[in-house]
Design a protein that fits this description.
The chain is of the alpha+beta class. The protein has six domains: about 70 residues, Phenylalanyl-tRNA Synthetase, Chain B, domain 1; about 130 residues, Nucleic acid-binding proteins (OB fold (Dihydrolipoamide Acetyltransferase, E2P)), CATH 2.40.50.140; about 210 residues, 3-Layer(bba) Sandwich (Phenylalanyl-tRNA Synthetase, Chain B, domain 3); about 60 residues, Phenylalanyl-tRNA Synthetase, Chain B, domain 1; about 220 residues, Bira Bifunctional Protein, Domain 2 (BirA Bifunctional Protein, domain 2, 2-Layer Sandwich), CATH 3.30.930; about 90 residues, Ferrodoxin-fold anticodon-binding domain (Alpha-Beta Plaits). It is built from 21 helices and 43 strands.
Length: about 850
């Protein structure tokens, strides 16, 4: 996010008289540049220029040497105060005594002094105090203490910053001198507004917002002529999206430059206010012009470069050492600037549009400078910067679009500044390889903005707005032929022009219209059921989470899925977010466990979570269209893509680990058991209004994994498997790092919702009749399912059995091998009368007979 010093901004646009930084930020917000912060130096109170009169070095008992200084601070001297008198009042005028631990200054130097009562950034209030046997009446400041940089090794000597001793006076206000009264506005720039990464762009936007007079800092007359300057060849043979990687490359030479020339104080202050560190005059000028105009520049030491410069794509395994000292192995899409030291275009000297090379950088011995200004393909630069994790100020601008007309102008501006402050001669002939395509005009009906925005803009307002942003507009009847300016590559079609009209006419002019909700609408059946499912699981103690649907290839192995399991039919992403997770999940459980692991890793011991979402199977994917019907996506293309999208069946899944009931004074903890997972499925059933069939048999190409084969229930709806619940396989728990005996469930939710569509759910009335209860203990073969026996009991009751439940299962030698005892509690009731003893006995005998006939059951 760029930082804009307001005094610098005022050189390009006439700020509204009396406007505060907040007012300026408000004006910019009206045209879409949102404020991120308003910054100042944080220095308050007396900060003045001081002249060191005496400096006495005193070694302390701790081994540290301090300086006791007498400093002349002009009208701020206090000769009568305690501890403020000089040792020799006749030899020196009144001054202040200050203790300082830095040693990079001597007597006679002009320094920056903060006096008692002031506040430094932090905030850090300053007061006089007794230290090292002296009264220290203030502090001599370093750059870091004033917020001017990170240098804390020594104090500021003003003459070393380029200030003339003749222009300095003790007691002079140092806040204004150092630009510490500067206010800086930090703004948020959206990706389509790259021109606002400059003083020039922000000044233009402020002029749009306020109608103030704008002075274009790029309105320079370029001296000299384009011709046979330093030779440059562009050999990019790998265009991206039809664009060559570099369509303009300008270069110009400055000879006889003084590399030791000081950076002027005003330039240093502005760079530091904008968040950049001052390095040297040559480097600072390139950064200054980049911040001012928005055109990145790169300076080469001409003595280290061999003609011609060649712009090309990197070769496999090629490398370059960039300015930060890192060796970077290059990709075939990276753009390079190469010289011919090792042959024609063989030695990389810059990573185009991102960062220069270390071998050819300007240094303290550079007297001849080759300055480059180019225009690079935004997509290529963005990919290179991200590939090498090398975001630079240059790449941030190039990837958002830079004015294609700027290169010769930026060179002129930068070389004039270098010449002015460091001397030298600018060569008249410069290089300008220009392959920039002409700007194609955009045709738009003059009422199109009004139709899109809903505000009755007139044709005159539309033309005025587009002209204001720099477009040239030709009127052909009701059609406007608009040619965008070179600094607005984001204006690609009529809809972009509509946005500019709405922005400049004022977003505050857009009417606020509340949409009218059509009658008869509400939640769909699917939404109602999904909310009921989520509420039921939450009430049961589970926490809803949302996980990303990407998994690693190893996750399927960790879940013990056989090679022929249908869940191995995965969808592989062509451009995954993470190379370690290139697949889409085939079950929610495969990613839900990651949420459990995160919570366990943060110290949680008892975790119960659920998620509703989608999983993806490759067999449901249609034929992906190979090409589109034209240069843009049409409705037919969208339809074809939708038909090819994999089936996205909505699911619900949960994982529970640890204890369901925590231990307390009244009892021990109760762990989550596999039956609790089955209970969660029952809650989903009730919420959906369906009843599922339960079995332990799995279908073809589908195993019981990741569940324990002996503690799993498989659920079916009309014969089709819709889910499973139970305890996880011990090996799965080990593979995934889950606690032993973790339980889980997963169901296909959409089929349950579809099944309950149109089903009227009514509440059962509370009966006023007396309930009759009977208990049975049947000895049956071990293969008989408890649910089957319960179903037979209810059916035998002929409508009089209200409920039947198994409350005990017993196996042992008293029962016999291969047999078990199932104890069933039966509740009987009639709707209109109390059952007689004979009716209860009749039902009892019918139940015994049905159990004996169907299962060979014997009553114990």
């Amino acid at each position: 996010m760029p930082k804009i010093p307001l005094s610098w901004l005022a050189e390009s646009v006439e700020l509204v008289p009396g406007a505060t930084p907040v007012d300026i930020a408000t004006s910019l917000a009206k045209v879409g540049l949102e404020e991120e912060g308003i910054h100042g130096s944080g220095v308050e109170g007396p900060l003045v220029v001081g002249r060191v009169l005496t400096l006495v070095k005193e070694e302390q008992s701790n081994g540290k040497t301090i300086n006791y200084c007498r400093v002349d601070v002009g009208s701020h001297n206090d000769p009568e105060g305690p501890g403020h008198k000089p040792d020799n009042k006749e030899s020196y005028p009144a001054s202040r005594g200050i203790v300082c631990g830095a040693h990079n200054f001597v007597e006679g130097d002009y320094v920056v002094v903060v006096l008692p009562g002031a506040t430094l950034p932090g905030p850090f209030p300053i007061s006089g105090r007794k230290t090292y046997g002296h009264w220290s009446d203030g502090m001599i400041c370093s750059a870091r203490e004033l917020g001017l940089g990170e240098d804390h090794s020594g104090i500021i000597v003003l003459t070393e910053l380029g200030f003339s001793a003749d222009a300095l006076e003790p007691g002079q206000d140092a806040i204004a001198l150092l630009g510490l009264d500067e206010k800086t506005l930090e703004i948020n720039v959206t990706p389509d507004r790259g021109y606002s990464f400059s003083i020039r762009g922000v000044a233009r936007e402020y002029a749009h917002a306020t109608g103030a007079s704008f002075t274009d800092p790029a309105a320079l007359e370029v001296t000299g002529a384009a011709g046979d300057g330093f030779p440059v060849l562009i050999e990019d043979q790998n265009p991206v999206r039809g664009n060559v990687g570099c369509d303009r490359f300008a270069a110009r030479i400055l000879r006889g430059f003084d590399p030791s020339a000081a950076v002027p104080g005003w330039m240093r202050q502005r760079l530091e206010a904008a968040g950049m560190r001052s390095i040297s005059l040559a480097v600072d000028v390139t950064n200054y012009v980049m911040l001012e105009l928005g055109q990145p520049l790169h300076a080469y030491d001409l003595a280290k470069v061999t003609a011609p410069l060649v712009v090309r794509r990197a070769r496999p395994a090629e490398s370059i050492v960039t300015l930060d000292g890192a060796t970077r192995v290059l990709h075939g899409e990276d753009l390079l600037v190469c010289d011919s030291t090792d042959g024609h275009g063989e030695r990389p000297v810059g990573l185009g549009g991102v960062m220069g090379g270390l071998d050819t950088e300007v240094s303290e011995t550079t007297t001849d400078i080759l300055l480059e200004a180019a225009h690079w393909d935004p997509i290529t630069i963005a990919r290179t910067a991200r590939r090498h994790k090398l975001g630079s100020e240059a790449s941030r601008r190039y990837e958002r679009g830079v004015d294609t007309a700027l290169p010769p102008i930026a060179l002129e501006r930068a070389l004039r500044l270098m010449q002015e402050h460091g001397g030298g001669v600018i060569e008249d002939v410069y290089t300008d390889v220009d392959h920039v395509p002409s700007v194609e005009p955009i045709e738009m009906d003059d009422d199109f903005p009004a139709r899109i925005v809903g505000v009755p803009y007139t044709a005159e307002q539309v033309v005025e707005s587009l002209t204001q942003v720099g477009c040239s507009v030709a009127v052909d009847g009701d059609v406007l032929v608009v040619t965008r300016p070179t600094w607005r590559p984001d204006l690609e079609g009529p809809i972009n022009l509509v946005e500019e009209v709405a922005r400049l006419q004022g977003y505050d002019a857009l009417p606020s219209v509340l949409p009218v909700a059509p009658p008869g609408r509400g939640y769909t059946h699917s939404q109602i059921v999904r909310k009921s499912v989520a509420r039921s699981l939450a009430e049961a103690g589970l926490t809803q989470v949302l996980t990303y649907p990407w998994i690693s290839e190893a996750r399927l192995d960790e879940c013990l899925l056989p090679a022929d399991d249908v869940r191995r039919d995965v969808i592989r992403l062509a451009n995954p977010i993470s190379a370690e997770q290139p697949l889409l999940r085939t079950a929610i459980f495969e990613t839900l466990v990651d949420a459990v692991k995160v919570n366990l890793g943060r110290g949680a011991q008892d975790v119960a979570v659920y998620e509703t979402g989608r999983a993806y199977l490759g067999r449901l994917v249609g034929a992906i269209p190979a090409t589109y019907s034209g240069t843009s996506i049409t409705p037919d293309d969208v339809l074809a893509l939708n038909e090819a999208i994999p089936g996205q069946v909505r699911r619900v899944a949960g994982v529970m680990a640890g204890n369901r009931v925590l231990s307390g004074w009244d009892g021990h903890a109760t762990p989550w058991r596999w039956t609790d997972a089955l209970a969660m499925v029952e809650k989903v059933e009730r919420a959906c209004g369906v009843v599922l069939e339960i079995s332990s048999e799995v279908g073809e190409r589908q195993s019981s994994a990741p569940f324990h084969p002996g503690r799993v229930a498989v659920y079916r709806l009309e014969g089709e498997i819709v889910g499973a619940a139970g305890e996880l396989h011990p090996k799965v728990c080990e593979n995934l790092g889950l606690p032993a005996r973790t339980v889980a469930f997963e169901l296909l939710l959409d089929p349950l919702i579809d099944e309950s569509e149109g089903v009227l759910v009514t509440a059962s009335p509370v009966s006023g009749q007396v309930l009759a209860k009977e208990d049975f203990a049947f000895v049956v073969p071990a293969s008989v399912a408890a649910g089957d026996l319960v179903s037979a009991v209810i059916e035998a009751g002929d409508g009089l059995v209200e409920d039947a439940r198994v409350f005990d299962v017993y196996t042992g030698s008293q029962i016999g091998d291969g047999m078990k005892s199932l104890a069933v509690n039966v509740k009987m009731r009639d709707a209109d009368h109390t059952l007689t003893a004979d009716e209860v006995l009749s039902v009892r005998e019918a139940i015994i007979a049905a159990a004996s006939e169907r299962f060979g059951a014997v009553l114990r």
